[in-house]
Amino acid sequence: MLSAKEFIKLFDAKGYDYDLHEHQALFTVEDSNKFRGQIKGSHSKNLFLKNKKNKFFLISCEEYTDINLKRISKFLCLGNVSFAREEYLINLLGVKPGSVTPFALLNNIENNIDFYLDEKLYNSKFVNFHPLTNTATITMKCSTFIEFMIENNKKIHIFSPAEEVIVKTYG
């Protein structure tokens, strides 16, 4: 499993353009708004979900997007979902609660976690995600984020919560 430091080294080795912001631990959107300071771009909330058939999903949406789990699970055909327990976060993504991020999918070697990215984030020039720890935030162009995820063999479903459709899929 990659650590936050190893992840940053990987970003640097690949030559990605990003800004790293260190801050106190942020556990909620409310914490983020209160303590993150002025960081450009769209900010996210990340939901790690599990259905009754032990299938896992990571949903990254714009921080103010209202997510109704019943509706989203229906239109994305996820089945009956709930938040995955902490043990699954640690064992499958290598992160703890509050640090959930799409970058943690790099720790999912089997690529058996379906990733959904909110169209609002996808259409943003800059996006912000934790680099495997909630004591820092990475800001980067969304196009660079998509490129990075594809280079690392991660499939991305772009979805619209408002229209209840998958708009595009990469990978």
SSE series: HEHEEHEHEHEEHEE
Mean of all residue-level pLDDT scores? 92
Low-confidence stretches: none
CATH superfamily: YbaK/aminoacyl-tRNA synthetase-associated domain
User: Regarding CATH, which class?
Assistant: Alpha Beta
| CATH topology grouping | YbaK protein
Radius of gyration: 15 Å
Q: State the distance separating the first and last CA atoms.
A: 22 Å
Architecture in CATH? Alpha-Beta Complex
Helix content: 25-40%
Beta content: 25-35%
Domain unit count: 1
Category from helices, strands and their pairing: alpha/beta
Report the principal-axis shape.
Answer: globular
Q: Sheet bearing the most strands, described?
A: 9 strands, mixed
Count of helical stretches: 6
Topology:
Layout: H1 4-14, E1 19-22, H2 29-35, E2 42-51, E3 56-62, H3 69-75, E4 81-83, H4 86-93, E5 113-118, H5 119-122, E6 126-129, E7 136-141, H6 142-151, E8 156-160, E9 165-170
Parallel strand pairs: 2-6, 3-5, 5-8
Antiparallel strand pairs: 1-7, 2-3, 2-4, 6-7, 8-9
Structure description:
The protein has 6 helices and 9 strands, in the order αβαββαβαβαββαββ. The chain starts with a helix and ends with a strand. A hairpin with a 6-residue loop joins strand 6 and strand 7 (136-141). The chain has a single domain (4-170), classed as YbaK protein. The radius of gyration is 15 Å and the shape is globular. The longest helix is centred in the N-terminal third of the chain and has 11 residues, at 4-14. The relative contact order is 0.21. It has 171 residues and is α/β, with parallel strands linked by helices.
